[in-house]
UniProtKB/TrEMBL annotation:
Binding-site residues for [4Fe-4S] cluster, renumbered to this chain: C33, C37, C40
Taxonomic lineage from the root: Bacteria, Bacillati, Bacillota, Bacilli, Bacillales
Note accompanying the cofactor annotation: Binds 1 [4Fe-4S] cluster. The cluster is coordinated with 3 cysteines and an exchangeable S-adenosyl-L-methionine. Binds 1 S-adenosyl-L-methionine per subunit.
Record has tRNA-binding as a keyword: no
Protein known as: 7-carboxy-7-deazaguanine synthase
Length: 242
């Protein structure tokens, strides 16, 4: 049995973002990322600040932890990070959850392919716009989308681009034009990761949401799309483990 670097197991809560927003789910957050986005809201997974909290757990141990925390109150698990697509043997966890009739979602940025991607029930690929300071490897992203299409898994796949400014919006248009068959989501960027009063953050993020809606409404290239805030940020602010 392989061991996986795990930073958090929490829930049940709701999926606050994207293609299955509102879905009751548990979260498993893995450590380590091949990116270092300027505005990462989970930088503790890769910046060394939480390295003492990383546990190395087998699929069996993660499954046991999920049941310990979530009891019988869940049938859906979201794996996020960091970048869980760095983990080659993650099918050990995915298969085990599927055997228990638990659906599995996964969040990744589209920088790495893994052969277990087609087994994921809700695969969110979130390529990074210019404000992140990261550069998209279009060859890798093309390959991921093509392979999901070959496996007839596009209905289980979505693209989600976080938007902070007009340049990011142009990037989103480019992504949507390149992969028109893939369900497409635009997400409000949270640019205030220090705010610890949920009410203040919610009010700011709703203003940002209105700005983003106005921009998307005015665009001729963004028609078959959905625009969403991070619902968990509206409800709980920058709190961890929700
Ligand atoms: C923390 S990442 C982990 C998964 C993977 N590394 C990725 O980026 O897709 C989960 C999601 O949160 C989004 N995200 C990160 N920081 C954010 C922020 N400040 N505001 C809005 N969304 C953010 C990412 O774009 C991604 O869609
Ligand atoms: N409720 C909730 N929804 C989420 N959707 C994506 C998350 C993530 O950090 O990957 C996340 C998270 O951390 N909490
Ligand atoms: S890819 Fe995801 S986890 Fe990695 S730095 Fe960017 S937002 Fe954070
Ligand atoms: Mg998050």
């Amino acid at each position: 049995m392989h061991k996986f670097p795990v930073l958090e197991v929490f829930g049940p809560t709701i999926q606050g973002e994207g293609m299955v927003v509102g879905r009751k789910t548990m979260f498993v957050r893995t450590a380590g990322c091949d990116y270092s986005c300027a505005w990462c809201d989970s930088a503790f997974t890769w910046d060394g600040s939480a390295k003492e909290d990383i546990e190395r757990l087998t699929a069996e141990e993660i499954d046991a932890r999920l049941t310990e925390i979530g009891g019988n109150q869940f049938d859906h698990v979201t794996i996020s990070g960091g970048n869980p697509a760095l983990l080659k043997n993650l099918e050990e966890l995915i298969d085990r959850l599927h055997e228990r009739d638990i659906e599995v979602a996964l969040e990744t940025q589209g920088s790495r392919w893994q052969d277990w991607f087609p087994t994921i029930d809700d695969l969110t690929i979130s390529p990074k716009p210019p404000s992140s300071k990261m550069k998209t490897n279009w060859m890798v992203l093309d390959e991921i989308i093509n392979r999901m299409k070959e496996h007839e898994r596009l209905a289980n796949t979505s693209l989600k681009v976080v938007i902070f400014n007009d340049e990011d919006l142009e990037y989103a248009e480019e992504v949507h034009e390149r992969y028109p068959d893939v369900p497409f989501f635009l997400q409000v960027g949270n640019d205030d990761l220090e705010e610890n009063r949920p009410q203040n953050l919610a009010s700011h993020l709703l203003d940002q949401y209105e700005w983003l809606i106005d921009k998307v409404v005015a665009s001729e290239k963004l028609n078959r799309v959905r625009v969403l805030p991070q619902v968990h940020a509206l409800v709980w602010g920058n709190k961890r483990g929700v």
